[in-house]
Amino acid sequence: TIDNVTILDNSQNAFSFINDSQVSLTNSTVIINNVAVTNQIGVNVVNTDNVYIDNVKVINNFDGFSFNNSTDIVIQNSIAEDNDNYGYRYFNGSQNIIFDNDIAIN
User: Residue 32 above 80 pLDDT?
Assistant: First the structure.
């Protein structure tokens, strides 16, 4: 469980969960300012199941949230804003639920 984290101006993926299970990310913010952003992802989830994301903000990344080959993901009360490519990006997943989120200028 990751709770109440703020990451500013990082040059890599802020949160990466790879080959994992039972992940919880809550009340956190990822904001990139004044950094050359290329292929940077606010929250990157790969080959991971049972992910719960609540009240997470991803702002000014390349992709906000990215999910690859992952299942049983719940995203709620979260914001993807001003990301260069996608706010939410999915590859090969299933049983994913997204509700009560804001997506702006992605």
Answer: no
Instruction: Report whether 92 contacts 68 (CB < 8 A).
Output: yes
Instruction: Count other C-beta atoms under 10 Å from residue 4's C-beta.
Output: 9
Instruction: In whole angstroms, give the CA distance from residue 26 to residue 59.
Output: 16
Could you give the angle at the alpha carbon of 3 between the alpha carbons of 82 and 34, nearest 5°? 30
Do residues 57 and 82 make contact, with C-beta atoms less than 8 angstroms apart? no
User: Is pTM beyond 0.85 here?
Assistant: no
Task: At 94, list the tokens.
Answer: 């299933």
Q: Are 27 and 49 in contact (CB under 8 A)?
A: no
CB 85 within 8 A of CB 106: yes
Which tokens is 106 given?
A: 């992605």
Kindly state the helix (H) or strand (E) to which residue 33 belongs, with its residue range.
none
